[in-house]
Amino acid sequence: MSAAAQSPAISQATRDFLARRHQLFIGGRWVEPASPGTIEVVNPATEETIATVARGGPEDIDRAVAAARAAFKGEWSRIGTHQRSRLLFRLADQLEAHLDLATELEVLDNGMPRMIARHSIAKFGCDFLRYYGGWSTKIFGETIPVQPHEAPNGGSLTYTQREPVGVVGAITPWNAPLIMAVLKLAPALAAGCTVVLKPAELTPLTALLLGEIISQSGIPDGVVNIVPAFGHDAGAALAEHEGVDKIAFTGSTAVGKKILMAAAGNLKRVTLELGGKSPFVVFPDADLSRVIPGATRGAFFLQGQNCMASTRLFVHDDVFERVVEGIAAMANGFRLGPGLAAGTDLGPLISADQRRRVMAYIEDGRRSQAELVCGGEVPEGKGFFVRPTVFAHTTMDMKIAREEIFGPVLCIQSFNDSDLEAVAAEANKTVYGLSGSVWTRDISTAHRMVNLIDSGQVSINCHAAVDPGIPFGGNRQSGWGREFGREGLEGYLKTKATTVLF
Ligand code: ADP
User: Fold this and answer.
1) 3-state secondary structure of 467
2) Ligand 1 atom 21, closest CA
């Protein structure tokens, strides 16, 4: 590990936040959990406990759902759309005013490099709130020309209204904690819903900061409730709660399936953003000066703990060696260290468990016919670090190529087929279908491949483009529904149709 591993300074505001007693945010107040319990928050770069947070349980989920229901029926239902918009803009301004603190907390809690935390909170926290703040005044139904059989000769008018679905349970993961919370909150509030947010037990800090900001934003009490808690008890209680109208979930495919089952009791709506194993297909005419950094960053962004990660490269034989060498050189040059240290390119994985899972995949890869080109080791010292790892000559029958690893492991497979359908068939050989990209200068090849790859997003000459306006979500076992953009709002709305005869 490099000099980046030395412990960086933390601001006084961050120290004060970490030292505070953190309770649950229910009905606009900070409250103790019904049954005593705490979550120890660990800095994955040092393995030290940095904060202690109250741990909610199923009874607290009940209280939070009741508060969200009361707010939904009460003040929030009467608040105008312009006021909802103003509140989301104010929330964005306040998050921006807390950007330094939010960034430091995110880095200490999750491990990601400071620049990534800062940029993503500004771009996908603040801008995302403003984007959906704009939508809240643009939600409307339609008038529909019909001839109801009750009035074959008379006049009639049919119109629709879009209504908020109600109380939303938001269950979020640890890989980009604050952004994931905002991705759920912004469209839910824009639509007029109220929310119970259960952040991941491994990374509750920025959700709690969000609670503090929300409590000063003018958003009525109970509209947003935040219950740091574990998934197996409190998360499951939220997913099956009769008082919840929709679950918005981001996390693993395995837990997504459990949530779906739990939601069946009251047939609540469910949107799921799940795993991925995204293909990145390089044709021989591609601009390798863009391919190599694009693939390397796409694979190792957030240490590969990222559902959109470009984990499977399909590279044409003619450029295979050059691409593999270029990626290995870049990956070997990445400096590992605590996210707050200057010069850190890659942080640690989130936990010892996660590192164990990732290392088991790497061991499996070593035993396969694939060639380990770089990485594969755990560096000496504290922190849950794993060196960025590249396997070349993988094939789609290998576990490392098929399954989502959620760590810094890139598989590179070669092809020499000019039949695009054959190339796409390899790219589609997983249960996932989230992201993907095609790299070529030939527009015909590019667009034909886009049509053949079965993913919710396929980019050309870039990977996993993200903007609040670009719909994002998966096909097959990568999920249900879309977030971002207008479609992201739709998931929080239901339609009421009215016909009047005259
Ligand atoms: P990982 O396994 O990588 O930690 P998960 O998909 O388990 O990712 O976690 C995503 C979120 O789902 C977290 O907030 C976690 O607490 C929650 N969760 C885990 N298990 C359940 C469950 N059975 N029901 C509801 N939520 C759950």
Assistant:
1) coil
2) 231
171 CB near ligand 1 (under 6 Å)? yes
Of 392, 427, 398, which is closest to residue 413 (Cα–Cα)? 392
The residues near 92 (Cβ < 8 Å, ≥ 6 apart) are: 125, 126, 127, 129, 130, 133
Rounded to whole angstroms, how far apart are CA atoms 186 and 94?
Answer: 14
Q: Class of 279-467 per CATH?
A: alpha beta
Q: 3-274+480-497 architecture in CATH?
A: 3-Layer(aba) Sandwich (3.40)
CA of 250 to the centre of ligand 1 (A): 8
Using CA atoms, how far apart are residues 201 and 207, in angstroms rounded to an integer?
Answer: 11
Which of 255, 261, 302, 305 most suits a substitution to test ligand 1, by most atoms within 8 Å of the C-beta?
255
* Residue-range domain boundaries for the chain: 3-274+480-497, 279-467
In the structure, what pLDDT confidence band is assigned to residue 136 with cuts at 50, 70 and 90?
A: very high
Known catalytic residue: 273? yes
Q: Pick the atom of ligand 1 nearest to 254's CA.
A: 6
The ligand 1 atom at the shortest distance from the C-alpha of residue 201 is: 16
- The whole-angstrom separation of Cα 283 and Cα 320 is 10
Is the distance from CB of 408 to CB of 299 less than 8 angstroms?
A: yes
pLDDT at 7: 52
Percentage of the chain lying above the pLDDT 70 cut: 98
Contact of 112 with 106, CB cutoff 8 Å: yes
Letter for the amino acid at 322? R
End-to-end CA distance of the chain: 78
> Which of 294, 258, 301, 259 lies closest to 276, judged by CA?
301
Task: Point out the catalytic residue in the list 126, 193, 307, 374.
Answer: 307
